[in-house]
Input
Amino acid sequence: MTRNATQFRTLVRREVLRFVRRPYNTFLPPIITNTLYFAVFGVILGSRIGEIAGVSYLQFVLPGLVVLGAISDSFENASFSIFHGRWNDYIQAVLISPMSDRGMVAAYVSASALRGVVTSVLIIAVGLVFTPVPVANPLYLLAFVLVITTLFAGFGVIGGLWASDFDYLTVMTQFILRPLVFFGAVFYSLELLPPLWRTLSFFNPMVYMVNGVRYGMIGVTEIDPNVSLAVLTAATVAVLAVDLLLFERGYGLTE
Amino acid sequence: METAIRADGLRKSYGDVRALDGLSFTVDRGEFFGLLGPNGAGKTTFINVLVGLVRKTGGTAEVFGFDVETEYKRARDRIGLAPQEFNVDRFFPIHEVLEHKAGYHGVPKAEAAERAEDALKTVGIWDKRDTRFDWLSGGMKRRFLLARALVTDPELLILDEPTAGVDVQLRRDLWRVIERLNADGTTILLTTHYIEEAERLCDRVAIVDSGRIVEVATPDDLRARGTDEVFVTLSTRPSSVPDLGIDGIVDARLDGDALVVTAQGGGRVVPELLRTLEYEGYEALDVEIRRASLEEVFVDMTRPDEPAEKLGAIQ
Output
């Protein structure tokens, strides 16, 4: 193994162990939250709503819940880990090492994206308790999950560097991320919206993510999945470039 | 002699505040070098420039010939830092923190585990290996910071106030570890508020003030530049201070039966002082020379108008 690979692997391992060893803080919350979502929206309300796009309401909302959990956890993991390291100064152990900025960004993003992927699997597993889970286009499903967890891990890095207090993390997740997700066609079909709101929804990037994962799972989408994937991939590359630029400039890290 | 650290015209500004203002000096490979200076003199800023936590505004800094910015990988690979503040990963037991640190420097996992064990044994806290940093005592935390600096097997060990707030026994334990490392060839850069520490450990010291080097010399050379006090006990108390007229004497006063003479190089002026006193009709019963301490020289060079205690520099 090369020296750079050892450095990268060490930081990824550290980041992964941090969330794996705290399942009550990292994995249990999405399991409980999604069990409640399935119980309330799927079983209780779903029985009255009937089918949407040819599948049960539970199967229709499942992809959106996967996106919600995946992006929340990948964002929170990166932003918390970097901010906490800055807050307590222990990120300096990494910063004063010979690791390259590129290696650091890659490690923080990879570990956080992995947490998002694990959360996705857990949510699908919870869904299996309530309903059969179709996987119509597995490669698309995998591609969309990977790209959106990487994208939001990248956003999380920016958030972790920008935050100067724990309140900032709350603001980012509760007041920006969650509203976008809830208005991202997680719980409803765009066809049900009035024309103005439907048009406005296309400016919400979450709509593309939810539709992409929905295409991967139930084979139904309101937006061309290839277009969604291309746009999200381009956004991911741009965000990672910003991450790298911020690390190189020492934004939030050095004086 | 190969140069371990070279700073040339190093500058760092925070707005109008110049933390480093043209700092220039060199440290040789294998040297035990001390940085002394009052709070805010720029010592920690300088160290942080070397390791990349502070971006310099101007000048150059090199570690073993490698520029700390353009060749930062090679420079940082040679540095082990025990910082002044506790900045340790609280999520993991301390042996894992060390393994991670070694891994960040490219040390493979199995070797990192061995190095972590060696480092913890070197500083005497191997039995605490499964404890998290927060649960260590203050003294053990200091030991751990040294262990973390050692785990990458550095050629340059930077110790920023390594014994701040520890008891005398632990301080001496740490000194023994550091002295052994230096004897084995590790270059050491030490900042300290304990003048005794610098006098005992350092080959040379640099006195830093306001971001500039005031002086670089051996502790003995610096002490020699201070003013000694010569206490001459006389058989009869003079009514006034005798007219001595000797080169090198800065001041003379009476203190009971003793004549107290302040002079640069007290030992040099004593023979002529005694001859002069005898010529003036005084009998000297006892002579005692109180040498200038490095602490007094330090205060003279940094804040000559303020007493040492006010500087917060001498503890």
